[in-house]
Structure formats: C-alpha cells, structure tokens
Task: structure prediction
Amino acid sequence: MLGNNIPTVKMGIIAVSRDCFPIALSTQRRKNIVAAYGEGLYECPITVENELDMPKAVDDVKTAGCNALVVFLGNFGPETPETEIAQHFDGPCMFVAAAEGDGDMIDGRGDAYCGMLNCSYNLGMRHLKGYIPEYPVGTAEEVADMIREFVPVARAIIGVKNLKIITFGPRPQDFFACNAPIKGLYEIGVEIEENSELDLLVSYKAHAGDPRIPAVCEDMAKEMGEGSYYPELNERMAQFELTLLDWAEAHKGSKQYVAFADKCWPAFPSQFGFEPCYVNSRLVSRGIPVSCEVDIYGALSEYIGMCVSGDTVTLLDINNSVPKYIYDEDIKGKYDCKLTDTFMGFHCGNTPECKLCSDRAVKYQLIQHRSLEPEGSEPDFTRGTLEGDIAAGPITFYRLQCDSEGKLRSYIAQGDVLDVKTRSFGGIGVFAIPEMGRFYRHVLIQKRYPHHGAVAFSHVGKYLYEVFKFLGVEDIAYNQPKSLPYPTENPFA
Result:
C-alpha cells in the first residue's frame, strides 16, 4: 500500500562470545533464536570472539544485504569487538543477551546478564548508538520477540537517515507556528530542499498534456466513485500529482526517500485552479507525506509514523473542542471519557480516503471560499478538498518538533477516534485521549507546540517512543495519568 518510499528491513544476527567461555553457548543459542524467529532473519555464520572476527562478520551481513542488525551476547561477550560492530555497520544495531536455563549452571552458564552491562558501558565510551530493549535478556523465543519489536523501530531509523524533505514556499502569514529551525533535521540525518512556489508552478505548467494524465484521472474516479468528485477538476489534479511525483524522483539526490511540505494557500488555489488537498491525500496513502502550510516537522512526523505503523497517516489541526450537546447526546455514558478528554482533529482534506467514513467526497474549502472567491458565488478554484468524518478506531497523536532554540522535542498520546458524527466540514473526527485537558495545557501549550499533530491509525506509542529516544530526543512528553502530575501543574488546583 505504501509503495517504495518506506524502507524494507532486512535483519541480520551476529553472535559474539568471550573467549574464556565456550563458544558453543553463543553459536547454539544464536541458532535457537533463528529457529524461533522463522523466515526473514539472516544468520551470520561467524561468531565474533576478537577484533579480527569483527570485520569479517560485518562484511558478511553487508554482503547478505542486511540494513539492520542484532548483536547477540550468547555469553559474557567481548567488549571491544562487539561494540565495534555498531561502529562499522551502517545501520541500526540492537544489543541483546541470553538468559540462562538451557544448560547446566557450570559449563552451561554464560553470564550474558553481566556482559550486557559492560557492553552498554563500552557503547557509551565510544559514543556509539545501540538499541537496547526494555529488558534485553531472554530465552530464544523472548529474543525473537524482541527482534520483531525492533523491526518497526529500525525501519523508522533507516528511513529518517535516508530522507529528504522537499518544500515549496515560505510558511503562510500568521502561521509561524509551523516554522521551526531546520538545524534539528541535520542532527538526525534528514536532508532538506527548499523551493519557491514559482518553481512548483513552472513545473506544473510543464506537465500540461502529459500522456499519463488520463490514467491518473481514471484512477481518481475509481477511488472516489461517481458523485463523489468533480470530473472537470480531475485533469488538473492529476497533472499536479504527476508534477510532485516527478519532482520527487528528480530531486532525491543522495537520499532514497522523500516527503513534501507545501504552501497550500492563499495563492495556490487561484494560480493552480484547485485546492491540493485530495492530491496530498493520495500521495500520503502511497507513503509520501505532503504536509500542509509548509509544516516541515509535520511531514517528518508523518513519515516516521508511517515507518513504525506500516500504514498511512495524516496531519491534523488540534482544532476545536467538542460541544457539550454532542458530548451529552453521543458520548456521555457510551464512552469512558470526560468532555475535556475530547477534541476534534481537522484539516481541509489531506486525510487518505481509506481512513474516512463511506460518505467521504471531494468538496470545496469553505473557509478559503469565504475569503478568496466573490461573496455568494459558486465555489470554483477552492474545490479539491477531501472531506468526511474520520473512521472510528485506535490512533496515536504525536509530533517531533524543533523548538526555537534548535532543540528537538516530541510528544506522544494514544487514544481513539470515536464513532460520533461531527456535524461539521472538512476531514474531521472526534478524538478521545485520556487526560487530554491536562495534556493540552501542560504539554501542548506549556511547551509551545504548534497546532498541527500527526496521526497514526493504530496504537504505536511504544515504537515512536523508542525511535525518538534513539534519535537523541530527550524531551518525550505523553499524556500523564491524573496520579502523575506535570511539573507545571498546580498541586492545589
């Protein structure tokens, strides 16, 4: 579904062994893990005991095409070569250790529980990043589960390292909340290419009459169904879709993956002849985020969410409170949440159609129609949004942001989209997040986050947390339970 803009993880495992322990402890325990994991885990045949073994093992997994790695301490492990693996392997490395219990406690004891301490110490000494699970010691079956949990984290880390974000235009006036220093991008390996809106318009015009347009129009009509789109707009929107796709291919440079952050108003609709929202929704459904209002960190957040969830995502305004009459009629007594736990997430229409209710349709942008087209006129170039209530289900609301001082910070909150009609317009849904009111005040407001948040359509908070932690983000906020007050929360309130 997400196309080829998301990495495919090929995981390998290298066992290491301290030379004063039986090497068979590591080799056999490695084989047991591979058997427990099943297909998809490459087993390096070289067990690393010393510094000469290390480059041979790393070359072996590289030759096998591995882009992520498990370093397995089958016994105490050799501190220098095991950590040098992370230094020489170009990809994320997880370090795990063997639990005892598969042999006698004399010749069959490996002491990997102790070795993991020294491994972590040496990673720090060498300023190396290694991913260490919450409890990194386990049986073959438990380590196999740790590896499965590592795959979405590794996918995001590989993706971020190989990502370029392409922008068009500056942030709209009075939307400076989407503006942030790009310094944080370089710190985690993301490249950025900033362009003018004119560059995009020139390229768009050059795609007029593109022979691929009819096929894209046909696909749009099939996706939406008769009566749910404007047939006369499809050619223009198809032309724009091809413009973005071609730009992505031509401008990847040294990177493998792309995301866009585009200026979508106020000049865009009048000059291109439509709103870009529906096209944006189609690209994100293929794994290519196109964030609104040149929200660079919004695009980055979306991309990370797609990597960890393996599914499409969206970007929404943390938009409006739920009216009490809707809460009383449709939520109270039916869902276990307070009024202040709820809010509506909204955007003009960038949410993929597969995540909207069945009555979704391409419509017009009501707010921009008020200000950009003559009063009382029929909508013209403000058409092109994808509107409908967001389908009910579990979600994770999150964001990675660079603050005004150039420091990366993030938040993660899990909750649900409720099966409640919004009675409103746009791509919109009723969200419920436990203790949202406190989270809104003491994280979103207190830490000065912008109004955009990324949405993954499943509970993936634990993966996002590990990714942000691996990327070096020290401030990872979440919706704390009432029993755990925020530092700025008044204890006497």
Notes: The first strand starts at residue 11 and ends at 16. The mean pLDDT is 95. The two ends are 48 Å apart (CA to CA). Residues 1 and 66 are 23 Å apart (CA to CA).
